[in-house]
Specification:
The protein has about 750 residues and is an alpha/beta fold. It is about 30% helix and about 20% strand. The protein starts with a strand and ends in an 8-residue tail after the last strand. The chain binds alpha-D-glucopyranose. Alpha-D-glucopyranose binds near residues 88, 125, 174, 301 and 302.
Length: about 750
Amino acid sequence: MLKIRYIALALAALASPGEAQSPASSAAQARVDSLLARMTLEEKVGQMTQLTLYPLLARGPQPRDSARIDLAKLRAAIVGRHIGSILNVHDGALTVDGWHALLRQIQDVALKETRLGIPILYGIDAVHGANYTQGATIFPHNLALAATFHRDVVRHAAEITAAETRASGIPWNFAPVLDIGRQPLWGRFYETFGEDPYLASELGRAAVIGMQRNNMLAATAKHYLGYSMPTSGHDRTPALLSERAVREYALPPFRAAVAAGVGVVMVNSGEIDGEPLHASRYWLTDVLRGELGFKGVVVSDWEDVNYLHSRHRVAANRRAAVQRAVEAGIDMSMTPYDFEFADHLLDLVRTGAISKKRVDDSVRRILALKAKVGLFDAPYPNPAGRTAFGRLEARAVASQAARESVTLLKNDGTLPLKPATRILVTGPAATSLPALYGGWTFTWQGNDTSRFQPGTPTLLDAIRRKFSSVTYVPGSSFDSIIDVAAAAAAARNADVAILVLGESAYAEGVGDVSDLTLPDAQRQLAEAIQATGVPTVLVLLQGRPRIIRRIADRSRAILMGYWPGAAGADAISDVLLGAVNPSGRLPFTYPHAPNALLTYDHKFTETFVPADSSQSGFAPEFEFGTGLSYTRFEYADLQLSHSTLNMSDTLTVEVTVRNTGERSGREVVLLFTRQHYGSLTPAVRRLRGFDSVTLMPGAAQRIRFRLLAADLAVIGRDGRAVVEPGAYDINVGGRTGTFQLRQGPAAGR
Ligand code: GLC
């Protein structure tokens, strides 16, 4: 059977701006327009104001499962200042009942005590499942989802996240993150779909489509634009990127999300080359709306309008900051604590500095968004929402995602292990739930273990369930030695030592590091275990690639587990046992040294080294796309439909994948192109297509990709996409074919 994979990005990129931004239905539009016509300026400016939950809470201790509101504060915000949106939890996940009670209280005030009864739009960060609702299905973080290279898994996970978030009563999700992961020092690397813009575009599109299916939720493409490449590696610091580089690497996933109809775009708190995104009319209006055709809501990130004054210092005071942000294109300000944004905006409109039309444009988008997610028809949580949780189908998707994300980076045959193998498990991540779930889990930082349901299995628990002779000696914490000698002594009585190392959970800037090297205590533990001579298997639970150079060679096998979520412990232990045949592929380049941060799409000059230099050019610990299996796959009979291609042609690429091993397995098939010569320095290769196939031993399948000339586009000197004639290689599974692209009219649509 032939599998055909269209390279969808090109199709999306060719879609005319706004084509996929289906305009609100005329009835909904009429409803919005009629409401807008009745609103006062104060009510309009209130809709552009978003508060976090905290300032609305009653003083004193808060219950763990619900939120205790101060009704006077709630009325002051909703009735007095007409705010339109609230976000967040106070400090941890609520129960479904806790969410329902909170949202009913909020909507009661909005619907019954205000002049126009406009419902409040509540927003939350449900970034790997409905992670702020107790009992929700917690999926692998995006970096792990990216390792599956599986669009359907990402879409299904997003659909379940949407169902459980909406079942909590919340119609707006601040996800997916579409920033690309090219700076692993940055504490949000794990929230990305990896280093490649095509992969992030495809999976970001799948997430948006899944999340917004049946208008279950409004999804948010964040953080527009260039947020994930801070030159310093520290969150919210400058990205020194040329516009060309921004368009080449950072913009494609947002273009894909807009083409998929994403409802909201959240703005990058940082800056690109001196220009804070919250103050950039060019990026927020000319590009996002003018070029990409975005018609939804642009929301600021946390307090970022104020930060134009107090941090970026591009506004002499907060009033000027409001003016710059609204003129740039912000529709809603996540203020998130006070009403100063509204005060200044009212004054700016009354003094003529900002036009009423400008305000109307934002309010119209906000009301249209509320209509799109059905808030005007069903503003209250649906009591039936409780039944949406813990469904077997959700657990099955979480298990599939975790299983398909586990990436086997090295294996000398030590894996898989037999059930009776005498195993020493050691290392801090073996017994850590935060090291399995990562940040944004029940609490912002994800490291409050009291929030996990009692009995939630750690990786050690799962290993103990599958192997009959398991000893555990911690050896070290994440950052300090406990008792390495005891661990080494135990290793001498084991057949295999499983070192579970990596990182405990973190979120945002709290997770920034200045040195990627695995902490000394963990390295010392590993070296002590390896010095005993016992075969060691290294399992890494981490949000990014910590440097393992000093312990990699003496590790018989190395598994990258990422932060795989609730099904992670079972998935990884099943891979160790061989019950699951791993198929994950690295969605980033794993560096061999802290300062060797090259990506797979580096340039040819980055591969050269001077004669007799001891340095290596491009020699990562593990390359982008690395992933081993317990079976073997062979690629044969690569065929290209054209040896010479016109710009208007479609190139068909076919290859046969065969399972030549003894067990079934899933193979991710990656298609790379290489431009031989370009007007600008070409990347050594670019990912232009991916698919996957599951094959029984001996079985084969013919895989077909269809590429348009537009799929070969790069960003030219003038910042525009360009497809250059000349020779190109196609590489699939190590097989290479070459074709000539002829000058000529580009593909029409
Ligand atoms: C944070 C994050 C953003 C999140 C928002 C609301 O600062 O940057 O990703 O959606 O605030 O929690």
